[in-house]
């Protein structure tokens, strides 16, 4: 692993610890949250882990940190907020734990590449192509992930599910389709904490595979309706509810701009370029993801019924990233480099 990982878990409350990799402008460095039982026991404390890391190595690193906490908590339950690999490839390193996700998450898992397939794609990617260079840049650091096939949930639900983790109340709330077909958020009502999964990103432009943006916005409203003090996004630092509100408003503005473009008959690549040029949050990373948001929204507006090709969507975004970096390196030339390689 050629990137820094957190060397400690951050205590959000005495029984909630967050693993927050510094993942600004990266793909794959997702947050995990450990909820430990509040009830005292003679033996090790019972714990629930929200999401597992992308690679086996990262997961073992997290497990070492958990084992070092007072009471050496044992993870008996894993919750996957959704089915993207950066939140679930580590599932298999918790043998015997119950793994919970929504029933609808199964729909997304059909489209999610298995670790061995993704590792093969990255290894075989041609860095001379726009998509290949982007894949190498963002995913080669994870090597072969240390796992070949995913470990799927052992228990699913729809709607809401209340759990008792050694005396700590945990409520799972289905909010998908939003980021994917089967998202859930984790509400810890006694502590005022919500784990938002990838419904919310902090200071990176979001990517949403299922959408449409109206649904993602509704999921943000559900988070805020929990009245949290702290929101842990899927990636980036913990947030205040006010920051989630700014993010939710941004999604609505973006939705309006995309719908306007669609109604005016603007071709998708043209609209995506315009959105990126008018980026209202230039400090946020991965601006090119706005192209994916536009492509997914266009699919919804066009009534697309087939399953979205996630790799093609990344390829579409990669064209804009190549253009941006070329403009940064040659500010005088106004010639965009790279080309759009795939449509949504
Ligand atoms: Zn993620």
Automatic annotation (TrEMBL):
Pfam families assigned to the protein according to its UniProt record, in alphabetical order: Lactamase_B (PF00753)
CDD domains: metallo-hydrolase-like_MBL-fold
Region entry Disordered, spans: 324-344
InterPro entries for the chain: Metallo-B-lactamas (IPR001279), NDM-1-like (IPR050855), RibonucZ/Hydroxyglut_hydro (IPR036866)
Every Metallo-beta-lactamase domain range: 29-235
Protein's name in the database: MBL fold metallo-hydrolase
Organism: Actinacidiphila epipremni
């Amino acid at each position: 692993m050629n990137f820094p990982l957190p060397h400690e878990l951050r205590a959000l409350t005495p029984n909630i610890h967050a693993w927050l990799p510094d993942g600004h402008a990266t793909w794959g460095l997702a947050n995990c949250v450990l909820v430990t039982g509040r009830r005292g026991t003679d033996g090790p404390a019972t714990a629930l882990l929200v999401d597992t890391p992308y690679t086996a190595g990262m997961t073992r690193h997290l497990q070492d940190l958990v084992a070092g906490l007072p009471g050496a908590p044992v993870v008996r339950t894993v919750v996957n907020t959704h089915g993207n690999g950066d939140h679930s490839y580590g599932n298999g390193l918790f043998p015997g734990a119950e793994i919970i996700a929504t029933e609808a998450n199964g729909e997304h898992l059909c489209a999610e590449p298995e670790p061995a397939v993704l590792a093969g794609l990255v290894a075989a990617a041609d860095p001379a192509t726009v998509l290949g260079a982007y894949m190498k840049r963002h995913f080669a650091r994870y090597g072969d992930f240390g796992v070949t096939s995913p470990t799927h949930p052992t228990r699913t639900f729809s709607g809401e599910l209340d759990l008792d983790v050694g005396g700590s109340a945990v409520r799972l709330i289905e909010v998908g389709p939003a980021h994917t077909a089967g998202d859930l958020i984790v509400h810890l009502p006694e502590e005022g904490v919500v784990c938002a999964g990838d419904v919310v990103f902090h200071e990176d432009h979001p990517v949403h595979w299922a959408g449409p943006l109206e649904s993602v916005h509704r999921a943000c409203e559900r988070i805020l309706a929990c009245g949290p003090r702290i929101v842990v996004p899927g990636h980036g630092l913990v947030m205040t509810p006010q920051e989630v509100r700014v993010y939710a408003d941004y999604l609505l503005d973006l939705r309006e701009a995309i719908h306007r473009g669609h109604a005016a008959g603007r071709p998708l690549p043209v609209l995506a370029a315009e959105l990126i040029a008018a980026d209202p949050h230039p400090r946020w990373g991965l601006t090119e993801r706005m192209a994916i948001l536009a492509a997914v929204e266009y699919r919804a507006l066009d009534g697309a019924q087939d399953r979205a090709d996630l790799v093609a969507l990344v390829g579409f975004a990669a064209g804009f990233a190549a253009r941006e970096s070329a403009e940064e390196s040659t500010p005088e030339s106004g010639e965009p480099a790279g080309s759009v390689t795939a449509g949504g």
